[in-house]
Amino acid sequence: MDRFELCRALRSAGVPEAYYEIQDCPHGPHTADRYFLEERGGLWAVGVHERGTREVHEWFTDEDRACRWLHDRLTDEGPRPEPATPEEMDRLLHDADGIRRRAREALDRALSEAGHRRTAQGPRPDDGRPRPPSAG
After folding, report:
1. How many whole angstroms separate alpha carbon 25 and alpha carbon 125?
2. Most buried among 16, 39, 66, 94, using CB within 10 Å?
3. Are strands 43-50 and 53-60 parallel, antiparallel or unpaired?
4. What dihedral angle (degrees, nearest 10) is formed by the CA atoms of 110, 115, 117, 120?
5. How many Cβ atoms from other residues are within 10 Å of residue 136's Cβ?
6. What is the reported pLDDT for 47?
7. Long-range CB contacts (within 8 A, 24+) of 33-42
């Protein structure tokens, strides 16, 4: 596989173009953090562009292996979830009230914590940014 075949394979797999940057392949806008593949002095570098810095994860002597490495990273969906056991399903189906109660409690805690942070920071102007402390 060469980098042009990799670009086509990633598009076919539905991987958003913003998630990767491949040398000489046309693409749309990138996200701030993305994988990259580029040739450097006869070697192929594959890594992550993150916060304006490129970190090489692997070096390859041939383009095919570099492309396959990147393809695997971008198309791996991870392990499939384990199906629930009959006991777990029964507990979930019969504890709907408990699940709703715990979800409501978690939401209330999060809203309360957000309110405490907002109070500690002082009121916010209309644009949503914190105001500097007043000199008083």
Report:
1. 45
2. 66
3. antiparallel
4. -160
5. 3
6. 93
7. 35/70, 35/73, 35/74, 37/3, 37/6, 37/66, 37/67, 37/70, 39/63
Provide the token pair at 130. Answer: 């914190």
| 70, amino acid identity | L
The string over 57-92, giving b where at least 16 C-beta atoms fall within 10 Å of a residue's C-beta and e elsewhere, is: eeebeebeebbbbbbebbeeeeeeeeeeeeeeeeee
**CB atoms < 10 A from the CB of 49, how many?**
17
Confidence (pLDDT) at 76: 87
Q: Which two tokens stand for residue 34?
A: 């993305």
Query: Encoding tokens for residue 129?
Result: 């940014």
* 39 three-state secondary structure: strand
One-letter amino acid at 44 equals W
**Mean pLDDT of all residues belonging to the chain:** 83
CB-CB neighbours of 25 under 10 Å: 16
The answer for residues whose C-beta is within 8 angstroms of residue 35's C-beta and 6 or more apart is 19, 20, 21, 46, 47, 48, 49, 70, 73, 74
Give the integer Cα–Cα distance in Å for 136 and 134: 6
- Please give the span between the terminal C-alpha atoms of the chain, in angstroms, as a whole number: 67
